[in-house]
Amino acid sequence: MKPTRLALHLIAAYALLALTNFAHADSTSKRILFLGDSLTAGYGIDQREAYPALIGAKLEASGLDYDVSPAGLSGETSAGGLRRVGWVMQKPADILVLALGANDGLRGIKLSDTKKNLQGIIDFAKKKNPDIHIVIAGMQMPPNLGEAYTSEFREMYPSLAHENEATLIPFLLEGVAGDPELNIADGIHPNPAGHEIVAETVWKALEPLLKQKLALNRA
């Protein structure tokens, strides 16, 4: 049977993560895990131009001793992320950047279910490493889904961040969404220039956290 496109994406994503973990198996570096969907996977561009890889370059330039583990999967939902979190966290992470939920919204999945799944991922991560820091990347839905749904969807992320004492990125695609010059032809996924802006948005949330952790370690 010919593999489906989703199956091929899954195999590729797992293979990449396995290679990343293997490459750093003996490293003493701390680990940042990016658990997300096609935005995190760098859909439509070279993965080396996607925002997790750009964050890796920023970490190296800043002299911060962290490894980056990208675990983005095109089409991933919060339920899918909950199913595979145990696999991607076989090696504990020090920071989890949780960037899921967009596909739930586009599919009209009940937001109570989405929030429950995202909370399940956070709970698993904290059980795996009680000292882990969670960074929640918020998303927004287009207005055609209705004002009530889009408003509730937008507020889901600050609510999760507050309840879990997590760092919040209010909108992962801030400054990128809707701009044809910053997205590939589908108008949804960032192009390399768009990913540079996304990386800056993520870095603004990560850099203070990393420097704070560094200061505490030195104290």
Your description of this structure?
With 219 residues, the protein is an alpha/beta fold. 52% of the residues lie in helices and 12% in strands. Helix 7 links the parallel strand 4 (133-137) and strand 5 (167-169). Helix 3 (51-62) crosses helix 8 and helix 4 packs parallel to helix 6 (111-128). The longest helix is centred in the C-terminal third of the chain and has 27 residues, at 192-218. The protein is globular and about 50 Å long.
Outline the fold blueprint.
Layout: H1 5-23, E1 30-36, H2 38-41, H3 51-62, E2 66-72, H4 78-88, E3 95-99, H5 102-106, H6 111-128, E4 133-137, H7 147-163, E5 167-169, H8 192-218
Parallel strand pairs: 1-2, 1-3, 3-4, 4-5
Helix pairs in contact: 3-8, 4-6, 6-7
Morphology: globular
Let me know the largest β-sheet.
5 strands, parallel
Strand order of the largest sheet: 2-1-3-4-5
Q: Gap between N and C termini, in Å?
A: 58 Å
Helical amount: 40-55%
Question: How large is the radius of gyration?
Answer: 17 Å
Number-wise, the strands total: 5
Q: Which series of helices and strands comes N to C?
A: HEHHEHEHHEHEH
Question: Which features does this protein show?
Answer:
219 residues; alpha/beta; five-stranded parallel sheet; 8 helices; 5 strands; disordered N terminus
Describe this structure in a few short sentences.
The protein is of the alpha/beta class. The chain contains eight helices and five strands, in the order αβααβαβααβαβα.
